[in-house]
Design a protein that fits this description.
- The protein is an alpha/beta fold.
- Helix content is 31%, strand content 21%.
- The chain has a nine-stranded parallel beta sheet with strand order 14-13-12-11-10-9-8-15-16. It has a six-stranded mixed beta sheet with strand order 18-17-19-21-22-20. The chain has a six-stranded parallel beta sheet with strand order 25-24-23-26-27-28, sandwiched between helices.
- The two termini are 37 Å apart.
- Pfam families: DHquinase_I (PF01487).
- This is Pentafunctional AROM polypeptide.
- One of its GO terms (molecular function) is 3-dehydroquinate dehydratase activity.
Length: 671
Amino acid sequence: MATKQQQSAPTPTRPRSTNGVIKGTKAGTGDERIVVIVFGQGQDRIVPVFADVLGKPHRMATNFSSVRNEDHGTVIGIAAGDAKVDIDSRNRSLIVAINAHCVALGMPPDLNLSASTDYEFLYTETPFFRRDLSRFISFILGQISHHEALITKPRTYFISTTFPDVRTALSNLDILSVGSDAVEIRVDLLKEGLTDGTFNSVPSLSYVGEQVMLLRQRTELPIIFTTRCTKENGRFPMDNPELYYEYLYRAIQWGCEYVDVEVWLPEDIRRRLFEQRGNSRIISAFHDFSGTFKWPSLQAQNIFQESRKYGDIVKMITIINTMSENYELEYFRSQIKANNPDGPPLSAVNMGQLGQLSRALNTVFSPITHPLLPIVAAPGQLSAAEINGALATMGQLPKKNIYAIGTFRSTPQATFFEKCFNELGLPHNFASVDRGVKGSVEAFCLQPNFGGAYINPPLSSSQPYIPMLSDAARTIGAVDTIVVRGEGQSSTLIGDNATWKGIRATLTRDFAPSAYKDRAAIILSSNGEDAASVIFALRSLNIGKIYTVGFKAHGPLAAGVEPFTSVESVTKSDTPFAIISALPPEKTHLVQPLLRYFSNGRDSRGQGKVFVDLANGPRKGDPIGVAEGCGWTAYGVADTSAFTTVETLRLLVGQNVPYSFVRLASGRGLY
């Protein structure tokens, strides 16, 4: 297979945390080059969709040389035929080029365009998954990053889709990925059917690209792109290292968050991939199936040092012969951590039944399986529930009492938590209790086996029995999650706020974080307390001026917040990009006139875009229906509650439950 030599593109700026938020508070600007979309014949309508997701205007151009500095802030579209003329001579420091290809056209992407552009977005028109585009463009431009958040978790897991065609997995993917922090696509296990009934020895790039597209359309989890060779329990041939480069570099172009690069590949290939990885992360992988590898050896140390040269994560997997080798691995792991405090993190497990102990003790990207998978990706793999059960048996996961505290109607997540605990195999007891009289929350917190609590409505952040607060809880002034860190006498209670993260995740579901930068927003609420999480979420996205209806902001959130005082002040305001209603259900109809008024597009970047209704209960009027009828992208409390539940579970038990599973288990499937 012919390979076109890739040219190194500038590495985009990387944010420091997940979902476009740096250190949990502010969205990063990321790659600020001009976005140019190369589109196929008759596919020019994808350009305004890219622009809308980014919150920018767009225009068409006839070639790359016509793109100038003054086009910053505008998305440019160039037809594929025109782009070929000067794409290789484009100003790479000014332009980031994306090849957008609709797979429904019945032909693969143009290989020259695929190789020449910086990135490639594959999509379907019917249905069209806008959130897939939002995630793709936000990630490749460095506005979101899962990695910095994941490496701070006490434990991370990934599940491997061992299907010959990922379509087989899609119907169960919501359940398969419970407990996983990422999902791996094993490219070498894919089977591309040929017209004669046989299978391609190596699946084509177009087939693999479509498989990645299908997987990303159905999961919000980061994707690990893996091509395992025949020597390492895979099916990719070893006689053509450039073939690996071609596929692995294309994974970077497709926006895969992690790319697995085997350490046996020539150093030049590993170096090129590392230098060209953009916002993707490289997992430098070593596997040994000989049964002769020893952890307490110079070879093991040398392999780690070689792997770390071009890896953001080092993965070492071996076959062992005795149980004691698990303890040798743990000593090796402790030495690596002590001698390499700045990383990269080490993911290391022993295969086979004898090595299952190491799978339970590994804390970095442990590979897991699930009963619904057709085969395990490697011998001895355990499910997330089995690992949690093993940890509980060893005393590494003590049984705790975790609570949902509040009224039954105001804690719709409570019934779902038990389902998650069961699916994850967690040993904890979960109870939903009424808050009761003043001081009752403190009584729960002082119990010896207290493991944390979700509180709705939230507490004031000034509780003497909660000695530590997150920045969000302190600024918002409300605690909706109490987290326990440490064990026994050294344990500490931390007050946190998950609601703002749920709101922010909703706001960025169909729009990139940069779409909100310096734009106006309107918040309606009966009081400042109910609006505080909304203000904090908008501030994290670098929103511009915030207008308020029904309340005045006070304290640290008051800067840049201006109340509407009259009809005249409404008419003189900037067109809001977002309107968020925190009004109670009986008052939600009051937002409808604003939705209608601001649907006319009074500024150069178009009409208002996003409406969120946080009311929980029977509404007066139909604000979401009005918003959708006026062209707004509308979300209800079910969306924000589901995202908040995801964040709450991460805080309480350190485990990931996908948004799609939350919606599925709560009675409404996403697809």
